[in-house]
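Tokens in:
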């Protein structure tokens, strides 16, 4: 296991009725920007609960943050923060709203062109407004980490950034706020969380027993409760376990001191930028074929994954690896997420375009060994046709 420093400062308020904790978290004198998406929080009662908890605080609102939050949607929120001297940002929504809020918090006091904060992966961030979260969609883990992904549709870009300054101060996770989500969004959340764990776990053995077994437990929970919560959306126990699994998938423990491989996400971001495919669905397109392409370098962990997660113990090593990869594809398909480019009416020609975009961005040695070249990425996407 490698040396590491672990620190997660986000305070989690989990369970029914916890939105009222906002009153204890945000100072009574604070001026607050409420950042939200398309309005579903008004339909399901979350907005009223949030407003009640905010009480007499001065609140300004910015709506319309979309899936894959867009730079041009967020910049007006930055201007509101500057003009109204906002003290706190409160993100109420799913991971995209939270990601967008992180950008807003970081951009307010930045003197330069705010897109730079994304282009340099967050290294220019020196300060950020305090951020609170009310999560309404389990998926990204953004409610308890320092990462964000921002799109800029005008230039067909989707890029991640990370900085400890944008950790949420607190996050409210009430599973009941997710009961009215469309099935597609719930399935996407399950698929996204599953891949988050994969990319921190399925590399090579590093002697990290706690991290490995924590990851494996999250896999098993998602495999078990995913179909249940899709079939029974108001089953509190199933949905609560999904919400917590999605948070635990990317709050730092699984990836502490171990090699990681975020190439599936990097490739998937390009598919979203080019074709608008849901983030989780791009992961499902890329992941099985990437595992097949990397079966030799990932062999040790693939065999461990096969046994401990899927119970595959029969057959030689080759057949067990193949079975584990097949199970991964089957899992995505079982929760309603197709895994082929053709399922999204995308031509195999996209393979060369994506490879070229990554090369142009300098992302030409992806993977835990830096061995995923643009040529190999192109082959992976061609195999996904």
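Residues out:
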């Amino acid at each position: 296991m490698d040396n590491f420093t672990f620190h997660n400062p986000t305070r989690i308020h989990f369970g029914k009725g916890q939105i009222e904790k906002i009153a204890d978290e945000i100072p009574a004198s604070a001026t607050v920007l409420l950042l939200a998406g398309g309005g579903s929080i008004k339909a399901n009662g979350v907005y009223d609960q949030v407003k009640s908890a905010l009480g007499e605080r001065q609140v300004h609102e910015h709506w319309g943050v979309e899936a894959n939050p867009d730079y041009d949607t967020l910049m007006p929120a930055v201007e509101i923060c500057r003009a109204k001297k906002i003290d706190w940002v409160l993100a109420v929504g799913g991971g995209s709203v939270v990601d967008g809020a992180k950008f807003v918090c970081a951009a307010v006091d930045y003197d330069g062109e705010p897109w730079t904060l994304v282009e340099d992966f967050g290294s220019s961030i020196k300060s950020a407004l305090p951020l609170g979260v009310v999560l309404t969609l389990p998926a990204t883990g953004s409610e308890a980490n320092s990462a964000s992904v921002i799109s800029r549709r005008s230039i067909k870009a989707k890029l991640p950034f990370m900085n400890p300054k944008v950790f949420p101060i607190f996050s409210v996770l009430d599973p009941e706020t997710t009961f009215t989500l469309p099935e597609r969004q719930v399935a996407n959340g399950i698929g996204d969380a599953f891949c988050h764990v994969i990319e921190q776990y399925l590399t090579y053995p590093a002697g990290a027993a706690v991290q490995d077994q924590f990851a494996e437990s999250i896999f098993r929970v998602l495999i078990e409760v995913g179909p249940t919560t899709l079939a029974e959306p108001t089953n509190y126990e199933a949905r609560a376990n999904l919400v917590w699994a999605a948070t635990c998938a990317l709050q730092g423990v699984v990836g502490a001191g171990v090699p990681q491989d975020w190439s599936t996400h990097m490739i998937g971001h390009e598919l979203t930028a080019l074709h608008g495919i849901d983030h989780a669905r791009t992961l499902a397109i890329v992941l099985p074929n990437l595992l097949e392409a990397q079966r030799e370098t990932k062999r040790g962990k693939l065999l461990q994954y096969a046994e401990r997660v899927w119970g595959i113990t029969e057959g030689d090593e080759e057949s067990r690896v193949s079975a584990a990869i097949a199970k991964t594809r089957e899992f995505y398909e079982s929760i309603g997420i197709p895994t082929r480019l053709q399922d999204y009416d995308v031509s195999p020609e996209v393979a060369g375009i994506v490879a070229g975009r990554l090369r142009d961005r300098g992302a030409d040695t992806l993977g835990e060994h830096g061995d995923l070249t643009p040529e190999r990425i192109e082959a992976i996407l061609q195999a996904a046709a």
